Amino acid sequence: MKIRADLVVENASELVTVAAAGCERDDSATRVAPGSRGTGRAAVSPPGLPRTGRAMRELGIIENGSVAAFGDRIVAVGPSAEVRAKVSLTPDARVIGATGKVVLPGFVDPHTHLVFAGSREHEFIQRAEGRSYMDILASGGGILSTVRATRAAPPSELVELALKRLDVMLCHGTTTAEVKSGYGLSADEELKCLRVIRELSEHHPMDIAATFLGAHAVPPEYRGDPDGYVLCITEEMLPRVASEGLAEFCDVFCEHGVFSVDQSRRILEAGKAMGLAPRLHADEIAPMGGAELAAEVGAASADHLLCASPDGMRRMAEAGVVATLLPATSFTLMLGRYADARAFIDAGCPVALATDFNPGTSPALSMQFVMNLAAFGMRLRPAEVICACTINAAHALRRADEVGSLEVGKLADIIIADIDTHLKLPYQLGTNFVDKVIKRGQVVVTGGRRVVQ
Ligand SMILES: [Zn+2]
Questions:
Q1: One domain, residues 153 and 256
Q2: Which of 58, 63, 111, 417 qualifies as a cystine partner to 354, CB 3.0-4.6 A?
């Protein structure tokens, strides 16, 4: 019995499956071409768990490989001749040659602040002149200036702005993204932003995971009374967010001068009680136990982590919390340093990467730019970088059963990149290598441009 397929991407120079060695769901993927790299026996992470340690270097590369799909799902992965032999193409099937190209899973961006109005390009000049992020925030700039612009914008404008940003992300290979609220900071305005995120899901091919980030900053209405605002979040906002089913995750900016560990715990526990999985902005600017809190509450992910303590890293590893690192933010803030990715890997933490796209501290929509920074700024290996932007990023969103690798049964979210080896992906700077993007079995980008059906 042959497997029905209506899409085949074939003859890739490298088919980067990111499937763990020995863990493939499809038997064809275990019989890789002679001389294939990255399929050694060193993988230590069982399927279903994020990759840690040396397993982050396992890319499951198949030379001269193919991937076939039917509808929105992958039905076969393996050496091209084997895939061709085992699938039967429907009359309208699309066959895409990938000779000389790298084929890999769509990128997952697990941390973005995509929904906002206004812009803050003037702030980077202030930073270049030596003003700190917290200094700019304290004088009414930073997040609060975006809050003013976002509150003033009608939902239709926010949707239009965000759809354009999603198109840019898609053209750079991102097929799944997390999107946070957090520029409303009142019950009505936060719900407005979350409904905008829901609308984006309905109007754009990108799969979107919505996060409620009412605790992004203390709004002017609660200046001097952060506990009052925490109560507003737990008693007023969260019940409305949960009852409308507007978010999967609840997030907090746990930082000195923003929300304390105790306040963050109250918010995350309240969210958990209402079915929202916790994640948090932790230990970005000062060490304050955010990583430890992430482990304590069983967060899906703790993000930023420039100042995480060794004990915090160890506890995150034990609790299986993904460390989502955001090098574009360190770059934009001109910190001259990055989170210690190697220390997290050595501690046994799964590491993911994200853009942290936002108007103030990370004007980056491309995961390829993040890959450049992770390779050169954090000294991660190309395989670790790709793992962090695919399967581990999918784990950070608890969607690894659906996306993050090219495996039978997962969504057909596929990038065809105009490079002959994956090593060039993080190495060559400032270039968009994406030729085609296939999202749920549909070609949505070709020649690096958005295809609108
Ligand atoms: Zn953020």
A1: yes
A2: 111
Number of domains in the chain: 2
For the domain that residue 376 is a member of, what is the CATH number?
A: 3.20.20.140
Expressed in percent and rounded to 5, the helix, strand and coil fractions of the chain are 35, 25, 40
CA–centroid distance, residue 134 to ligand 1 (Å): 14
Distance 65 CA to ligand 1 centre (A): 37
Instruction: State the distance from the centre of ligand 1 to the C-alpha of 329, rounded, in angstroms.
Output: 9
Identify whether residues 75 and 136 lie together within a single domain.
Answer: no
- The answer on 96 and 60 residing in a single domain is yes
Range(s) of the domain holding residue 97: 3-105+404-450
From the CA of 338, how far away is ligand 1's center (Å)? 15
Shared domain for 280 and 355, answered yes or no, is: yes
Q: Are 141 and 403 in contact (CB under 8 A)?
A: no
CA of 362 to the centre of ligand 1 (A): 9
- Residue 18 shares a structural domain with residue 80: yes
Q: What is the pLDDT of residues 318-372, one digit of tens each?
A: 999 999 999 999 999 888 999 999 999 999 999 999 999 999 999 999 999 999 9
Sign of the alpha-carbon torsion through 310, 316, 368, 406: positive
Check: CB of residue 115 under 8 Å from CB of residue 65: no
CA of 4 to the centre of ligand 1 (A): 42
- Give the tens place of pLDDT for each residue, 278-311: 999 999 888 899 999 999 999 999 999 999 999 9
